[in-house]
Design a protein that fits this description.
Blueprint (H helix, E strand, L loop, with lengths): L1 H20 L1 H27 L7 H7 L7 H68 L12 E2 L10 E4 L5 E3 L1 H7 E6 L4 E6 L3 H13 L1 E4 L2 E4 L32 E3 L18 H10 L5 E2 L8 E3 L3
Helix pairs in contact: 1-2, 6-7
Amino acid sequence: MNKKAAGIIFVILLFTGLYVSVPGIKNYSDKLILHKGTQVKETKAVSKSSTNKSLTSDEIKAEGIYAPEPEVEKNNTDAEISFKENQSKTVSVNGNQDNSATKTNSESIVTSKNDSNKSSIASNSGSAVSNISSNQVSRGGSTADESKYPLLSKVNGSFGQFRYRDLSGGRIEVDPQWVSQNIVTITLPGLNRQVQVHKDAASHFITAFNYIKNGTAVINGQEVSLLSLIKSMDGTYVTRHVNWNPTRGLSNHSWGTAIDINASGHFGYVDPEKDLDDPNLILWEKAFKPAGFSWGNRYNDSMHYELIK
């Protein structure tokens, strides 16, 4: 035991002597203690500063320090997320309101356009009906004054119809707009006489009188010109009732589609089998029939030739 105790004391004295006599060992020990103290201080400093400043994951890895994210920062982040979500919801609501407003405006615009289109369509339809009605009346698209011309004629084939008013003695007055649009003045070939007729009948009249101007007939064995058979031309466009009787319908003369020739002696019927030399029968066969006219002889009006189409 004494030897062991003496050996231990010897070793302690030896190291103590080396520590004192060899400066490097003392410096190394001081450095080791300083390093450990610095590490502890740095760790404390990092922990302390981490409450004020968040380190990035890269900085934490570089420092080799584990520093959990402060609760305050997390709470702030949650608050920010909540704010953003609320803001997003607000924007969404506003967006829906805007969309609703836009939709309402769009619906208003569409409704307005539809109303406008309907009004336009109704207006156009009304115009179309009006035009159809006026075309039926005038064949020229004009509108008659119904208060002044309260009566409406029949539709006379392609020559149309018109408004009119009755006058005395079986006469009528036709809507002047219809007259201006449909009645024209022509010169009858051969007779060189100006007459008024319907514009759509003019070519038929001219054709008939060209036949009369250039044609001939044999009467009692003698050849005569057709023109010589016309003793009188008694009217084309004459606005009146049939036979000037206000209780009867309107004469085709009111449309300018008829002509009376040789009225004297031709108020009745001409027998084609017995009256072969009758001038109006010859004129019918040689001129008016080829030109598209019909003859009033079938209803005992042998002076009368008219167009029906």
